[in-house]
Amino acid sequence: MSNYSHSNKNEELYLSIPSPDNRKRFTIINEINKQSIVLMISNELKFSPFLGLVINRFQLDSNTRKKIIVKTDCGRRIKTLEGTFNNQILYISISDLIDEDYDEDDKKSVSISPQVEEKEKYLPLFKEQKDNKNLFFKTIIKPIIKGPMENVRVIIGESYPYRCKFLISNPSIRSRVNIYFTEIPNENRELDYSFKVVFANNSRCPKLIVSELEELIRTKINISKTNIRSILFVATQYYRDNSFFYASYSGEKTTELLFPDLKHGQTISENQLLLKIYNEVEQVSKHNNIPESLAKKLLFINSFDTKSLLNNDKESNHSSLISLNPSHRTCQISLIKFNNLMKKSSQDQECSICYCDYSQNEMVELICGHKFCNNCLNFYFKESINNGNGNKMSISCPTTDCQNKCIDEVTIETMVQDSSFSKLNTKNLIRDYIFHVPGSFSCPQRGCGRLLLGITSTSKYAPYVHCYGHNFCIFCKKSGYHWPYSCVNFQHKIVDDLYSYKWILENTTVCPKCEIPVQRTMGCSHITCKCSFEFCYICSSNWREHSICQSAKRNLRVINDIKKKNVGFSDKFLDGFFASKKIKSNDPIILYLINSFFNLLSESSDKSNQSLLEESIILLRNLADMNLKHTSKFDFTVSSCQNMLKKLLRPDITLKLNFGSNYFDLIKTNNIQKVISLSANICMNGVKKSVAKLFVNTQFFDFKQEISNHLNKIIKCNNGTDIELYDPKKIRIFNQHGGQIKNSQEILDGEALFITKSANEQFIEPEIPALTPEEIEKANQDNEEDVKLSYNNTINLFKKLHQKDKRKNDKLKILENEVNQLKLQQQLKID
């Protein structure tokens, strides 16, 4: 035990924590110097004091506060701690740009007083769209707005020179094509423009080559620069001919039959989500007569609750719009009189960032009227996208105190010269949507990429989600089926005992004297058992005493014995089960549910829902025998199954079935144990194998000393006399993500801790160690013993029907008979 003297004599030796543990811990990695820390915070902590803790722990300059960028491990920037989870990895970096915006936690607590709208702060408007004589807008953008093309979506830029993005996508194709057209103004006012092609998610479509499509478009432009529909038709055809389509998938028919609400939990592709976002942005934009960039910001603030925004009148949304300082109050970009559009001048203009003079063609005018050169905006947008801005956290106009806080995505993506930033901006849009829209998440299957949206109340839906050839649990997102088992205690078992009893009763007659099952393969009904007792095979009566066979009495005593054993089923259910025929259907969902309900009935201590489970089993067996043929009886059975499964999906019933009524009552009355002792698994640096499990001392140095003592004992036991021992004053403790732990309070219960001998020893990514030859040999021996044990358990399966073995003199023959019966039973199961 440690010689360290505690400052507080009444202090507990080991650390205790509340259960459940509501604290939140982050492993924070500084991307600049790769240092890492562990930070334990309360759930109530706001983002601003959290930044203060980060600055203090990393010893950063307090002046960098507005430049600190915090991102999750998936690359999404956060400005609030809402939505973060325990044991999450966060990355911080220092941006070259100053973030003047509030953090989102402060925004919710700050009331912004409505400002008086000044018409003078907006650029003037044309009276009608036809007054705008710009050739690019009339020739390139307007034809697609008036006559939309299949699989083509146009998004208009909110800046001058005019620009637009044509999104070519298909819900059944994973990849998509973005074609950007940007006007090139000239003194002769002739139509001239440039274009850029960007493919997204084309890793599985090697035939999609940017240079090939650009050459096709260039050829069409040389033929006719004004025929935009012809240009887009060629691009769409190339996209379809060279893309990889999702395999057609109609879902699991049985699951959709039993859980009709499954249709509300269908996954969609990224292309479908993008079209959904653009459609909703357009609707909100037109409803409130605001630019689409502002409509997208409004949707993010309201978690994409489009219905409420559309149901409200314009005045109801007025205060929200005023607080956002709208850059303009029109949804039609063609009505805005940009300064450079109205004043064609050969005179150079000054960039508001670098203060250099540029020609009008090298300048971009935003919707707020401020002008910047291409190079400055390129750098500004790249840095902003790298910081995670551009969608939920919009990019503001670089001019100080400008009201334009939402620069549109088309202007951003056309100005960045590197196409990877255009792809990253779209990725950030999808990430932000999933994070900020409740109940939305990506499919957990690696490489799938499909999304599930808006599942806010999982108890209303099916417990499984089918996603193009694989499935996962809607509650915990783990792959495979495990409901009706709980997510924290799921296990896949096969019910053998009851089916074994059923097979014995259907295929054998149990000897009334020695209680050994006998199977007749041929001959008459007169059976002479090996115990010399004679009985009738049909009714199991004494052959010398019976005259008329009563088959109903066959094995009746065995059935009564099974009922007396209290195997978890009611007598009525057992009578019906033993009298029923073998299930004809091989449907995996129905068989899985039946077996799972059997397990819960036999193992659960809660009997309050016994009748519900038994009725569900009977209904599912009846449904399986109908082979999914639609009749009036079939429809009634399906409806009954649906009602039963809806009841079983209730969270309180699932808890009772898995953990018993007592556990559920403890949760309900809030009488669960409040405090537990904190423990941790100790591992050597770089090795996942635990060498000790220790309680965590309240004093951190005491804990380090106990760790050192355990590790030094292991070294000495392995005759490591020449190996450097662990010194409690020098060792460093890391979690599995490489975050250094400097306090007992920063440890999570049951987690693995990795120990280095000094500050000079670097943390090594933990790996599962290779087995030594001795460990492999021991594992093989254990495996052989497990096989023997499994075989012996199988041999003893039938012995549950009787308590004593009355054939001690003929054990070998009985064993041989039972083995033959087992083989036959196994063959029947396979058939």
From TrEMBL:
Pfam families: IBR_1. GO terms for molecular function: ubiquitin conjugating enzyme binding; ubiquitin protein ligase activity; zinc ion binding. One of its GO terms (biological process) is ubiquitin-dependent protein catabolic process. Its EC number is 2.3.2.31. Keywords: Coiled coil, Membrane, Metal-binding, Repeat, Transferase, Transmembrane, Transmembrane helix, Ubl conjugation pathway, Zinc, Zinc-finger. It is found in: Membrane. Pathway: Protein modification; protein ubiquitination. It comes from the Eukaryota. Residues 798-825 form a coiled coil. It catalyses: [E2 ubiquitin-conjugating enzyme]-S-ubiquitinyl-L-cysteine + [acceptor protein]-L-lysine = [E2 ubiquitin-conjugating enzyme]-L-cysteine + [acceptor protein]-N(6)-ubiquitinyl-L-lysine. PROSITE patterns: TRIAD, ZF_RING_1, ZF_RING_2. InterPro entries: E3_UB_ligase_RBR, TRIAD_supradom, Znf_RING, Znf_RING/FYVE/PHD, Znf_RING_CS. SUPFAM superfamilies: RING/U-box. Residues 347-565, 351-398 form the RING-type domain. One of its GO terms (cellular component) is ubiquitin ligase complex. It is a single-pass membrane protein. This is RBR-type E3 ubiquitin transferase.
